Amino acid sequence: MALLRVEGISRVYSLGKRGVEALKGISFEVEDGEFVSIMGPSGSGKSTLLNILGCLDRPTEGSYYIGDRDVARLKTGQLADLRGGVIGFVFQTFNLIPTLTARDNVEVPLLYRGIGSKQRRTMAMAVLEEVGIGHRADHLPSELSGGEQQRVAVARALVTDPELILADEPTGNLDSKSSKAIMGLFQRINAERGVTIIQVTHDPNMARYGSRTINFTDGEIIGDVPVKERVWIDDVESDTADGIATGCDPGESESVSGEGRRT
Ligand SMILES: Nc1ncnc2c1ncn2[C@@H]1O[C@H](COP(=O)(O)OP(=O)(O)O)[C@@H](O)[C@H]1O
Ligand SMILES: [Mg+2]
Questions:
Q1: Phi-psi group of 124: left, alpha or beta (phi > 0 → left; psi -120 to 50 → alpha; rest → beta)
Q2: Is the CB of 14 under 6 A from ligand 1?
Q3: How far is the CA of 46 from the centre of ligand 2 (A)?
Q4: Domain 35-45+77-243 belongs to what architecture?
Q5: From the CB of 15, is ligand 1 less than 6 Å away?
Q6: Which ligand is in closest contact with the Cα of 215?
Q7: How confident is the model over 120-177, as pLDDT tens digits?
Q8: Is the CB of 43 within 6 Å of ligand 1?
Q9: Distance of alpha carbon 170 from alpha carbon 178, whole angstroms
Q10: 246 has pLDDT over 80
């Protein structure tokens, strides 16, 4: 069974007398373990779709299934469980709480689960180490570079051990070096944890790290293809100089391969 299935979903925003049809009856499935990039020009409905996939919004028409669960039929509490446990979110602007340290930010999703403070601390530290930022655990977001903040946000998304990560332009505010490091992190999470990843990007270079690209225009899918020459980042720890325009060799620690590897 597919992890996600959308069937003929549309989303009409009411805006004055006329509605804006942001999604026009789209259908697709995502299998467990895919790394999908959703691409398309600004205003084409990408964020609208991601919000629906994340159960933050509902389609005007059509159906959305997560596994065998028809999202429209779920009660408020069940939706909250999905958002809090099955799905992890990563945003363009990181959305960290500025007054909390990196570790405390990562602990936030655990607060709602009645997990004791010692256990929360252990779990938060483990994912911060996993994303290569354990040494910054006691820092506030303002003391971290953009790439480091996004790592903390990825750790926060991972701490509940989700099946799916939804990322809306996760590299939109990052320089190219830290963007690649975040893509490397996604590849590792995808390969090692088996977490399904769906990211919105309008950078074709970022889409090359995924396994499949869905192209949007004007609320409709105009293309849905596997990534042919997928790029792999082998060294996830390579953004120590991020935030600084390094002009480093873009080929560094990358390898291009055909289909088949690590899939
Ligand atoms: N809350 C909203 N109310 C009214 N219109 C909206 C709202 N959110 C998005 N739209 C409109 O829906 C369309 C798709 O928007 P969006 O999903 O944000 O596109 P993208 O993420 O691809 O840039 C755009 O025309 C946008 O103006
Ligand atoms: Mg958007």
A1: alpha
A2: no
A3: 5
A4: 3-Layer(aba) Sandwich (3.40)
A5: yes
A6: 1
A7: 999 999 999 999 999 999 999 999 999 999 999 999 999 999 999 999 999 999 999 9
A8: yes
A9: 11
A10: no
